Amino acid sequence: MAAEQYYIKDAILKSAIHHESFEKLWETKWKAPCSLGIYPFMFGSIKDFEPVAQAIIKKGLKEPYNWDEYAEMFFPKAEELSRIAEQAEQAGEREKASEYYLRSSAVYRIARFPAPRSEKQKYAWRVGTETFYKGATLLEYPIVEARIPHTHRLQGTAEGDSIPANLLVPSSASASHPCPLVLIFTGLDGYRTELAVWQRGWLDKGVATIVVEIPGTGDSPALASDPLSPDRQWSSLLDWIGTIAAIDSAKVVVWGFSTGGYYALRAAHTHAYRLLGCVSLGGGAHHMFDRAWLENVNKLEYPFDLADTLAHKFGYPAGELEAFIREGQDKFSLLRDGTLEKPCCKVLLVNGTDDEIFPVEDLFVALEHGRPKLARLVKGKKHMGEPESFVVILKWIHGLLGLDGDVLHQLKLLPSQIKY
């Protein structure tokens, strides 16, 4: 039985209350983080989301969602915030304009959450991204979009020719004094427009950041269904980083969040000699593709249909969940394809013991194969073991890069800073 296979035991058979309706989702899972301005409401404000949430609740939306109907509920508020931002920008009020653009992008984000699968969700992603950069470029330390040539793309396929990424480099960095780089791999639903919240904190430490999306998410050009596509994407990205004189290409640390942790663990082996270290936070490796796991996760910790969202991310069209469950492990397991037996750079694996998104057993799979790795489990915490896990990871990266070890400043910058 599934309950006997995993650390979480019979929790895998219990349905979380937030799957009953959007009302339960908002009241039991989303309202509290929204009020704090943390994941998945980065750059957002509770006063923007509360009226939208109440309208959705009044309409009685619940699983299975019509994603166009769901997304459309957020558009009036997102458009209203964008208009205020435009007016502020025209009046020369940069700070106010930046805040309102970013708040608008946060509303568009939840409209396309967890993944842009319907037409209106795709629209929300496109417009929300444009709105994000309008706000990000008006910040005190502007975050710009880099379009990195995908020189290793697979010719003759649908693989894109550029890799969009957020870039922020300290003004003090130069060819004579290059800075380290933290390369952030985003997750299943948190893209470069969200994990940008980490960039200012690293800037204050004299560290450059690049935030880039993993295959099958956001604007990643990689073929979602090709297990080798991430290797090509990272090769193109690292080649380009090597041309930036202000960045020390010998001091590149990868931090992968959630599904990005799976890709960080892979990159640690496929690009071992090009990376100083890799962090897999809440990442899977092998058991994340178990049939017994995937057949149950749609009703667990994740706010929506996790198995279907993963199938979409790995290149399986709507309605082909069974094909993904049947084929996923053979195609994408880092154990079955031999990745974990290859040499690797320094690796830190971190997760909560009670993770209901990716089984904690995958952390042990990674430890049991290949070179020795470091690991930390956060007892009694669910996916990614946050917020305790952030302290562990930040201190580890500080140690690798010879930084000051003061991580609280970085953590304080994560929640939304709403002034207007």
TrEMBL record:
Coiled coil: none annotated. Keywords: Hydrolase. The keyword Hydrolase applies. InterPro entries: AB_hydrolase_fold, FrsA-like, FrsA_esterase. It holds the Pfam family FrsA-like. One of its GO terms (molecular function) is hydrolase activity. It comes from the Eukaryota. This is Yellowish-green 1-like protein. It comes from Podospora appendiculata.
